[in-house]
Every structure is written in structure tokens, then in C-alpha cells.
Amino acid sequence: MERQPIMPVAQRSSSHLAGTTIAVRPSTNFVTTPAVQELANRALGYLQAGFPIHFRGPAGSGKTTLAFHVAAQLGRPVVFVTGDDQMTTSNLVGGQFGYQYRKVVDRFIHSVLKYEEDAIRNWSDHRLTTACRDGCTLIYDEFTRSRAEANNILLGVLEERLLVLPVPNQNESYIKVHPEFRAIFTSNPQEYSGVHDAQDALSDRMIMMDVDYFDRDTELGITASRSGLAESKVAKIVDLVRDYRASGEYDQAPTLRAGIMIARMVASQNLRTSSADPRFVQICLDLLGARSAFSSRSTEERQQHRKMLMSLIDHHCPALQADDEPADKQPRLRAESGEAVQRRRSARSDSAHPGNGSAEMR
Ligand SMILES: Nc1ncnc2c1ncn2[C@@H]1O[C@H](COP(=O)(O)OP(=O)(O)OP(=O)(O)O)[C@@H](O)[C@H]1O
Ligand SMILES: [Mg+2]
Fold first, then answer.
1. Distance of alpha carbon 268 from alpha carbon 219, whole angstroms
2. Residue 319 Cα, ligand 2 centroid: separation in angstroms?
3. Ligand 1 lined by 59 (C-beta under 6 Å)
4. Would you list the domain boundaries of the chain?
5. Is 252 helix (H, G, I), strand (E, B) or coil?
6. What distance lies between CA 256 and its chain's CA centroid?
7. What is the pTM of this model?
8. What is 2-210's CATH number?
9. Cα of 9 from ligand 1 centre, angstroms
10. Which ligand is nearest to the CA of 252?
11. pLDDT tens by residue, the chain, 362 residues
């Protein structure tokens, strides 16, 4: 009997961890302040007790970073999924893809040719199945971007700890969820484009934790760590962004990320955080001005908005302020700068070299 080799059309990818999971370690770049630590400890406590958690908060509030940080503490491989309107149950779980062909040519009796051919459909595990099978930590980022129908599969996983396969695999119709399996979800309740409401039954199975904008110290620490910029300069940028956020004069709230971006630009181009530096001002206007929708505002309103931003920039990063002085020293510095200007003016009238005073202003 002559047996032809099996010709797989698509390799069956069972729960091989490589390529599907991420090995996460606590990051040295992660900034821990009392506010962050409290949130992380609380989340970890719930996860260790076996509950799924849901970080809910506005864009750029640190949900995904916190999810990875907490997942790293659990010490299990991480499976990362991002919600998407096109997500289907089979994208999450897997399904039957391709065929495995088997052909048998039997010449046991030389005058008789027996010929058999069959095809078996290949089952391929996708990320949720891998996570459930191998006890990984699932981070399902922005899960409300997926339709409720796609996420329904999670109901049994989180409650009965059973993953019911929508299309039965060859040997199994459901998978018992590994005891170490944990799930962390994130969502942005302020997002209105491309999101769906989380179904009550799913929300009811998770512990909701609100991640709002961090306190000033945390934003300072994160922005300094992410940009490598001196803290005195970071303080001015963070205060500018926070003040703008408090003003409510925007269509899209300025996030921690906006501050990090400005700080990184200042660091990479070695700019002064001063309203006297047109490049710095332009970067602030580019990054903060874009928070106001172009289409919904008249030219006059846009000019008003720009003026308001300019006055905020001038307030937090005054032209006469020494660049390395923290923003909270501003009133004193202003007074000093005023004196310096006065001195410079009198020096100008007395001196034959009018340019000398500008160096001390910087
Ligand atoms: N504790 C932290 N330590 C260091 N960096 C942080 C920390 N928290 C947040 N960041 C940084 O802040 C920025 C925003 O964080 P992140 O992407 O986690 O926010 P998000 O809430 O998931 O935002 P989005 O809703 O837009 O996805 C990122 O650049 C991230 O690296
Ligand atoms: Mg995120």
C-alpha cells in the first residue's frame, strides 16, 4: 500500500503561545505615584480574586498602559485584542479555515486499484481561545468598538468559565476556561465615533474602575519620564495643558498625551518653553488648537480660540521668565523680570550699546 503524504492547506495552529501572546514584564518606564499605585493595587486585588475588570476613562487617561502594568503583575502571558466594528465571534475564538487532505492509493492486489481521498477541515484557535486554554491574561482594549454580537461569547467565559465554540472543533464543542485566565477590558465612554454600548449582561460581569485624568504630580511624572525633559520645563507644559482642559473651551479634551507630545518636541528640538519662542508657540497651537473642531466654528470664533490659547501660553510660559524656572515661581519671576526690563531700559538710555540687556532677560 502506498500512502501519499498529508498535504495541509493551512497549518492547524492550536494553542501555540508564540505569535499570539505577549510576555510582559513590569516596565521601568511606568511612572508610579500614590494615585497610580492605588488604582493598580485595587485592580490587582479584584483580578487576583478572579474578577474581570474594566478600566473606563477618557482618551489618553492611561487605561491601556495601566492594563499592561497590572497584567505584568499577574505574571501570565498576555493576549491583546483591540475592539473593532468588524470583529466577529470567529475573529475572537477561531474557526475552521482551510482543509487537510488525505489521499490513499492502495495497490495491495496489483490488478485492483483502491483509491481513497478525504478532506478534514482545519480548526484554528484565535486569541480568546488561546487565552482561555492556556490561562493567559486577556487585555481587550476598547472592547466597546466591537459589536455586542461579537462580544456575547464572553458572557459564558466570564460567568460559567466555559468557552462555547460557535462551530464545534473536531473533538470539542466547548473549552473549560483555565483557572489562571483573567480579563482586563478598557473603554472610553466619551468616544462617540465607532463605538457601541456595552451590553448590560457583559458590564454586569466586570468590576468597573474609572480612570480619569491624573492629578498634577502624576501628569508631571509621566510627561517628564516620557519626554526626558527637565521638570521645570515639563511643569509649565503640564500646567498649560491642565488649564486649557479646565477651561472647557474645546471640542476634544486635551489629554496627557498632548502634553507629552509638546514636551517631546521641546526636548527633541531643544526649544525654550517660552511665549517668546515662536517655534514653541506654534507647536502648542498645533497640538492644542486642533482640539477645537474646525468646521463647527466661524473664523471669528477660531480667532477668539487662538487668542485664548495665546494668553494661556503667555501666562504659563511668559516671555520674560527664565526658561528653567518652575511655573509656580511665575509671579515672583514676573516681578523680577519687570525690574530687569526697567534696569535694561535705563541702561539703554545711559549706554551707547543698546543690545546688552537682552542677554540677561533670557
Ligand atoms: N503610569 C504611566 N507611566 C508612564 N507613562 C504613562 C502612564 N500612564 C500613561 N502613560 C502614557 O500616557 C499616554 C496615554 O496613555 P494610554 O495610551 O495608556 O491612555 P489611554 O487611556 O489608553 O488612551 P486611549 O483611550 O486614547 O487609548 C501614553 O503615551 C502612555 O505611555
Ligand atoms: Mg488605550
1. 20
2. 36
3. yes
4. 2-210, 216-346
5. coil
6. 11
7. 0.79
8. 3.40.50.300
9. 41
10. 1
11. 433 333 322 233 344 555 778 888 878 889 999 999 999 999 999 999 999 999 999 999 999 999 999 999 999 999 999 999 999 998 898 876 667 777 777 877 777 788 788 777 676 778 999 999 999 999 999 999 999 999 999 999 999 999 988 776 667 788 999 999 999 999 998 776 678 877 789 999 999 999 999 999 999 999 999 999 999 999 999 999 999 999 988 888 899 999 999 999 999 999 999 999 999 999 999 999 876 666 666 788 888 889 999 999 999 999 875 555 544 444 433 333 334 334 433 443 444 333 333 323 32
